Design the sequence.
């Protein structure tokens, strides 16, 4: 079909409504992605101040970012926090997923409890943890922040484990048990290899959620535990130079890198969590 | 986890670590917040242990706080309505298109969710800033002579929140639309309904649960937003979270901050309860 004929078909009365809908949908998707796209472009700005479009291109702001002690320390805190809390929450979440999948129906309360961190607004989790940590004299402690991130990332790990376990045929596990394997051996030698990919997805999910969190950091970070998003937040309030864009672009690159390296994508039915 | 415990404990044991995390890190701190909200504030020492309902009386009796709550709800309603207007057509398109790009386009909705909202707030600064994209475009088109001041306004906050929360509307609506059996729509068409009638009388009513659960989620997340309004609204936009934040971290009036927090817990719990009731298993629960 020639381009002209194709356009004629798209604009025919029968298709016109659908064409309008498709166009509108693409515009909404652009609206959704534009703020991220302009940040990446702005990071290569050569000028002193935030301007868009950039008058020239340079890598100076990446240089400035990697030379900034405070940003580097924040990046390190975020990486440490992300990996440790994602590892813990994957272990805890996988165990919970196994427990849920191997239980009879009627555990709705337990399910809702395990998923509750998804539904309680982050700002309230932050506020209440601020009080609790002050009470326990744990304010500003890295382990407090790690436990907080375990709380908010665990539901993702639990859910991916449950989804992965749906693919496990119970008769395979029963066969292993009948052949004399105990529960731990059955899990390690039979179940885990089957759900390995789901467990890894859960870990990546948890890592990304931890890496992008701002609310918990706002309330329970101390001077020694400033995360990259928190550093960006406080920096941005008084300086909106392209340095913020460069730092943001490094964070975006890290997240996309992890996703591409592991080939893990966000599940299509996840509500996720942003604001 | 130890092999012996796993052998003897049974599946119930596996749930314990997760429930412990939720109990210690979520339930207990919220209880502490509830307890503190009924305490009297004493500058310098937080509380003297005396019980009072004064914090709630102050929150609900002061015109300033009522005004903030009213504006927060108003903003939440505007954000929810806009998310619905933008999100429903997109969800409908993604649920019905036969394009090869469908999986890719659906994936694009999840990409922004992986990026910190601090970064996306900066994106809005680049778009709406004094020397930002929008001003550049308007200037070069000759529509304005001097750049507009678009940031630090309620409009900027609404735009940012709609962008950040849009996926929370699109996903439940899309899955509600996908769950509609094609035969139902085909039957309507076979009985002589026009595409328009089929949509209005069959498809739209069947997608209402998705619309309601998406709206409840977006509304609940927008009335509890703090970071985005702080960055894009500046001093102009005061939302209820900011009152709690200031009470906690600026004036150290923790009992009052706790009362504000508990009020938010009550409202969002009601909204989320509705959301969970309306959302099928695969969205809400594992």
Sequence:
């Amino acid at each position: 079909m020639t381009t002209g004929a194709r356009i004629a078909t798209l604009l025919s009365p029968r298709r016109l409504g659908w064409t309008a809908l498709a166009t509108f949908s693409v515009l909404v998707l652009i609206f959704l992605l534009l703020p991220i796209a302009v940040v990446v472009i702005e990071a290569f700005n050569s000028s002193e101040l935030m301007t868009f479009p950039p008058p020239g291109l340079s890598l100076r702001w990446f240089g400035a970012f990697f030379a900034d002690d405070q940003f580097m320390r924040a990046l390190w805190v975020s990486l440490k926090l992300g990996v440790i809390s994602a590892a813990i929450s994957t272990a805890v979440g996988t165990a919970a997923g196994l427990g849920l999948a191997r239980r009879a129906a009627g555990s709705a309360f337990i399910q809702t409890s395990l998923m509750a961190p998804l539904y309680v607004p982050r700002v309230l989790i932050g506020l209440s943890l601020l009080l609790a940590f002050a009470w326990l004299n744990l304010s500003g402690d890295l382990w407090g922040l790690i436990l907080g991130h375990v709380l908010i990332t665990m539901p993702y790990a639990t859910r991916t484990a449950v989804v992965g376990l749906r693919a496990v045929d119970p008769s395979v596990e029963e066969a292993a048990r009948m052949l004399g394997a105990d529960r731990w051996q059955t899990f390690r030698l039979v179940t885990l290899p089957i759900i390995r990919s789901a467990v890894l997805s859960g870990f990546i999910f948890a890592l990304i959620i931890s890496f992008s969190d701002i609310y918990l950091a706002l309330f329970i970070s101390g001077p020694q535990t400033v995360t990259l998003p928190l550093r960006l937040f406080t920096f941005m309030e008084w300086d909106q130079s392209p340095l913020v864009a460069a730092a943001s672009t490094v964070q975006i690159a890290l997240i996309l890198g992890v996703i591409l390296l592991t080939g893990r994508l966000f599940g299509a039915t996840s509500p996720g969590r942003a604001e | 986890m130890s092999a012996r415990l796993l052998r003897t404990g049974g599946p119930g044991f596996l749930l314990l670590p997760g429930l412990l995390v939720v109990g210690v890190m979520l339930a207990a701190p919220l209880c502490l917040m509830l307890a503190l909200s009924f305490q009297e504030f004493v500058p310098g020492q937080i509380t003297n242990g005396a019980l009072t309902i004064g914090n709630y009386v102050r929150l609900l009796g002061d015109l300033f706080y009522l005004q903030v709550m009213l504006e927060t709800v108003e903003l939440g309603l505007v954000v929810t309505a806009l998310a619905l207007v933008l999100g429903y057509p997109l969800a409908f398109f993604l649920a019905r298109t036969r394009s090869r790009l469908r999986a890719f386009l659906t994936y694009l909705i999840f990409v922004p969710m992986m990026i910190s909202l601090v970064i996306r707030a900066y994106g809005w600064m680049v778009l709406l800033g004094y020397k930002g994209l929008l001003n550049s475009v308007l200037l070069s088109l000759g529509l304005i002579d001097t750049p507009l001041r678009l940031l630090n306004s309620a409009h900027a906050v609404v735009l940012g929140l709609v962008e950040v929360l849009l996926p929370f509307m699109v996903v439940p609506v899309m899955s509600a639309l996908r769950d509609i059996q094609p035969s139902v729509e085909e039957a309507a068409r076979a009985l002589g309904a026009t595409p328009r009638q089929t949509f209005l009388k069959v498809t739209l009513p069947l997608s209402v649960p998705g619309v309601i659960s998406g709206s409840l989620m977006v509304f609940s997340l927008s009335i509890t937003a703090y970071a985005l309004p702080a960055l894009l609204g500046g001093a102009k936009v005061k939302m209820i979270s900011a009152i709690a934040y200031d009470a906690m971290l600026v004036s150290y009036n923790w009992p009052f901050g706790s009362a504000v927090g508990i009020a938010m817990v009550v409202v969002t719990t009601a909204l989320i309860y509705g959301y969970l009731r309306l959302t099928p298993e695969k969205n809400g629960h594992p």
User: Anything to note?
Assistant: Residues 266-275 of chain A have pLDDT under 50 and may be disordered. The domain at 64-262 of chain A is CATH 1.10.3720.10 (MetI-like fold).
